[in-house]
Specification:
The complex is a heterodimer of chains A (about 220) and B (about 210). With about 220 residues, chain A is of the alpha+beta class. Chain A is about 15% helix and about 45% strand. Chain A is globular and about 55 Å long. Chain B has about 210 residues and is an alpha+beta fold. Chain B has one domain (about 1-195): Clam (outer membrane lipoprotein receptor (LolB), chain A), CATH 2.50.20.10. The relative contact order of chain B is 0.22. An 11-stranded antiparallel sheet of chain B has the order 6-5-4-3-2-1-11-10-9-8-7, covered by helices on one side. Chain B contains 3 helices and 11 strands, in the order ααββββββαβββββ. The chains are: A alpha+beta (about 220), B alpha+beta (about 210). Chains A and B meet through β4, β5, β6 and β15 of A and α1 and β5 of B.
Chain lengths: ~220, ~210
């Protein structure tokens, strides 16, 4: 009996998770609502304090450096200990990923892929067009994209101005949930929740003013 | 698996950060050790500048450093992230800021930092000896500079050289510069150094 329950439990759980409904509408009181787009528009450098937690317990606090260039869809990132030791450094562009340093326990290929996927989700506007826009059951205005690699991506804005990014599997299971800060700088505070077999969360707080990098000046 | 990874990290840290050389000028190193023997306690502010290709300008960290002979150290960063490492009577604990309070790091980072701090305690005592992974030479000028260069392939490529500047007057370490390559280095400047003064009570005690 227990074994049977164990076998059907994943099916039950899967059937419970489905893509949230949105009521198509992009017009409120005669005004067309624009899709929220908090994403980086120019090549920008961010330095965050990154707090990683799993099972509700803080596992690590690090300094995270990110350079996001939306024009070339190039990401560079580094993770440092609070003392400044570089634990991980990598970059990704459309032609591939390059890992220049990965000390244990950050030396698993899966870690690099997951981290860069998360950073891309946070900072880059998806290339796919908006499939539909409307309101969720909670009243949040949401723009939904069908992702080329399978699955769905919702970008919505709460009444308090916080932008929420949610990535779902093809079957509608929530995989990532990102909440950005309300106000002028959405990247001042970022909360990411990963729903995997081993779930984790990242809490990122900007510790240095973000810097727009001028290609001509920097020579990079 | 996790233990193995931890051991690899410790070995790498040991090679990266704690290696010290056979004496290239035994008299010079003996003199440094003699001069430093008068240091019973020390406190200093420090400014750390991390330069990397990814950064458009060096990342500046600041904090406080405390030492009491023979081997008690408190290494406290206040910016950009608050963290405290305390090494005292053979035990090392690392605390990091989380949710507005300091929590003890249980991930193994403290063990790694113990290796580093044990060696830093050695610097404070003028002990620049005993690790064959680096060759050392002393350059005399307005200050004494010890230059360490990797001797083996384990550290070559990870560290190009380490420069430690020591005061000629009292053998106090003034600057540490770790050159990782053409585009990456860490420089730590110790400022407002006070030697042989009573340290604040509880400096090396655990953070509740």
């Amino acid at each position: 009996m227990n074994l049977r329950l164990l076998l059907i439990l994943p099916l039950l759980l899967a059937s419970c998770s489905s893509l949230p409904e949105i009521r198509p509408s992009a017009v409120v009181a005669g005004k067309v609502i624009a899709c929220p787009s908090p994403f980086v528009a120019r090549k920008t450098l961010f330095i965050h304090a990154v707090e990683a937690a799993a099972a509700g317990e803080t596992r690590a606090v690090m300094i995270g450096v990110t350079v996001a260039d939306p024009a070339s869809r190039t990401l560079s990132c580094a993770l440092m200990s609070p003392e400044g030791m570089v634990l991980f450094e990598a970059s990704r562009n459309p032609s591939g990923t390059q890992i220049s340093r990965a000390l244990p326990p950050f030396d698993e290929e899966e870690f690099a892929r997951g981290l860069l996927d998360d950073i891309e989700l946070i900072f880059f506007e998806p290339p796919e067009p908006v499939d539909r826009a409307g309101f969720s059951d909670t009243g949040r205005f949401v723009c939904r994209r069908r992702l080329q690699g399978g699955g769905w991506l919702d970008v919505g804005k709460d009444g308090d101005g916080r932008v929420q990014i949610r990535r779902y599997s093809k079957g509608g299971t929530l995989r990532r949930s990102v909440a950005l800060a309300a106000g002028a700088n959405p990247y001042a505070a970022i909360e990411l929740q990963a729903s995997e077999w081993i779930g984790y969360s990242l809490s990122m707080t900007l510790v240095e003013p973000e810097a727009v990098l001028d290609e001509a000046l920097s020579g990079k | 698996m996790r233990g193995q990874a931890g051991r690899r990290l410790l070995i790498l840290l040991f090679l990266l950060l704690t290696a010290f050389p056979d004496a290239a000028g035994a008299d010079d190193f003996d003199r440094l050790r003699r001069d430093a023997s008068g240091i019973s306690s020390l406190s200093a502010d420090f400014v750390q500048k991390k330069s990397m290709k990814i950064l458009s300008a060096p990342l500046v960290s600041k904090g406080k450093f405390y030492y009491a002979a023979p081997d008690s150290i408190r290494w406290e960063y206040v910016k950009p992230i608050r963290s405290i490492v305390i090494s005292n009577q053979g035990s090392t604990k690392r605390y990091i800021a989380s949710g507005g309070k300091m929590i003890e790091d249980k991930t193994g980072g403290a063990l790694a930092m113990k290796i580093v701090l044990d060696e830093v305690a050695g610097w404070m005592k003028g002990k620049f000896t005993a690790n064959p992974s680096f060759a050392a030479r002393v350059q005399e000028g307005p200050e004494t500079q010890i230059v360490l260069t990797p001797t083996g392939k384990n550290t070559a490529g990870l560290i190009e050289k380490i420069e430690i500047t020591v005061s000629r007057k009292d053998a106090v370490v003034k600057t540490v510069r770790i050159v990782e390559g053409a585009a990456a280095e860490t420089r730590i400047d110790f400022l407002h150094t006070v030697v042989n003064q009573t340290l604040p009570p509880g400096t090396f005690q655990d953070i509740p």
